[in-house]
Amino acid sequence: LLLPLSFILPDAPRKGIVINLAAMRLFQFKENGRSLSVSTYPIGIGTSERPSPMGQMFIDRKMFRPTWYVPASIAEDHRKKGDPLPAKVPPGPLNPLGEYALYLSKAGYLIHGTNKPSSIGLRATNGCIRLYPEAIKRLFESTPLRTPVHIVNQPYLIGQRDGVVYLEVHAPFEESGADPLEKVYTKLRNMEKKLGRAVDWKRVEKVVAEARGIPVPVFELREGSERRSAEIIELRHPVLLYGKPEVPELRTNAWYVLAATLPDRVDAQRLAAMINHQGPPIPARVISNDRHRVIAGPFKDVGEAKDAVKRLKIDLGIDGILVEPVKEI
Q1: Which of 66, 231, 261, 327 is deepest in the core (most CB within 10 A)?
Q2: What CATH class does 255-323 carry?
Q3: Which spans in the chain are helix H?
Q4: pTM of the predicted model, to two decimals?
């Protein structure tokens, strides 16, 4: 598992909050005397149908435990799917805004938490910017009103550190229009002339093709630079993952929902994790014998189980099957 620990900053003012939609990442700049620090958080962004806005904005207001007033367009979408929403959703586990919200000066758009952590890193919102619950808490507490917010869409990023030039590439959005890749090539050629060092163009082509979102050195490396750029940090896997929902023990007197039967255990575990991280979470586990069954539950009664079936269909397109409690003889 490769985790990026370095990121190239987007080409934007290093002040307040900068969001790069292509990287699905938020950068927070804080001045401390003469120094400037930056914190970064992964985000979820708008879909292609309802994209997140771009441009210069600011934090207009802040709200702890916000109420979600459902926009008419979203209410209509849910009505068509057979999932009607109330006019407003109060604070709590059903509220998609989570516990903290930063309202942008562009009306209708927020930076907020979520009750669906699995949506972070995806184009899954109606245009707002989502953060993990623990991340939005830190951002909320450290962001004053009127903080500038600059939202950009930059899939190609070039940066330098310790004499090494890096290229970071993210897959461009299909609806973005003109591909700015030629501008990146021009910038690299200009740097090649200015620095008097050759660009490894084969590596550039590979980085662009793979679009892994990881900074990769693309110039001929000076002596000693390769070791720094390739340094690997070994991380210990935590015993308990932060925010991982606890799945209750199996009970024979409870209702369950069979979400899927899959031949591959990893696929089954992945699906169970997705269900566990729905908002609010639906407990799910994998039960294996010759095949791997993804079971959601336990549920206290048939009504709760049917509600889970409905949510699995609407949120994930899964046709769940009700499993009745074991009858006592």
Answers
A1: 66
A2: alpha beta
A3: 72-80, 133-142, 181-195, 201-210, 225-229, 265-276, 302-316
A4: 0.84
